[in-house]
Amino acid sequence: MPSTHAAIQSLFIEGPAGRLEALLNAGAPEATHAGLVCHPHPLFGGTMHNKVVFHAMKALHAFGFPVLRFNFRGAGLSQGSHDEGHGEQEDVRAALAWLKHQFGLPLIFAGFSFGTAVGTRVACPDPDVRAIISLGTPVAAEGRAYSFDFLKDCHKPKLFLSGDHDEFGPHEELERIIANAADPKELVFVPGDHYFAGHLEEMRLTIESWLAELLSRPR
Question: What is the Cα–Cα distance from 44 to 91, expressed in whole angstroms?
Fold first, then answer.
């Protein structure tokens, strides 16, 4: 098991297409949850070092949670090759399984762009994932269309957070998708584009505020 004394640890986890390069930010001994954050499209430069992913990790880590980031197959030092989102779902399952094995805690999932399009499909039906944070939910990105019909059956607390001029998530279409998603859910726009450029702090604080309110509710 990773040392809880190291602030951040580089490691590899076993994935279905080979080893997945990962980073673990250690949590507090009294952590109540563990977190997973998934990165944007690897064919367009997305990795676990992406700024949005980093700030999402910081938001989860602010609550003392251990937080795992990893590179999808074919990105960074992860083995395998890009599989257009299909095999990447299995990568997410492997990362969630690793967190469960290491910490035995309820999980919070966060994903950015491609990371949320892929990851929410896995996180929604997983009983150990208790909340979902979707950042820059992509409706159509450079010719790639994403379907979120499965959200109608996802009854977990969900935060959808996007920039108010996200070029890949037009307001009207995003609002339609969220309207069809099961409750509980919240759609929040903060200033910025798809990458929250210049507004990452606002993005992080919005996540923290939503999580604080969610975790304060009676269970």
Answer: 18
The CA distance from 181 to 189, in Å, is 17
Give, in order, the Cα–Cα distances in Å from 46 to each of 71, 114, 160, 195.
9, 9, 20, 11
Distance in angstroms between the alpha carbons of the first and the last residue of the chain: 29
Residue 35 lies in a domain: yes
In a domain, 149, yes or no: no
Q: Is residue 19 part of a domain?
A: yes
Question: Residue 144: CB partners within 8 Å, gap ≥ 6?
Answer: 138
Among 8-17, 36-45, 164-173, 179-188, name the one with the lowest average pLDDT.
Answer: 164-173
* Partner residues linked to 18 by β-bridges: 15
Q: Would 146 be classed as within a structural domain?
A: no
Q: Which domain holds residue 74?
A: 8-136+199-216
Least confident of 3-7, 46-50, 70-74, 141-145: 3-7
As for how many domains the chain has, the answer is 1
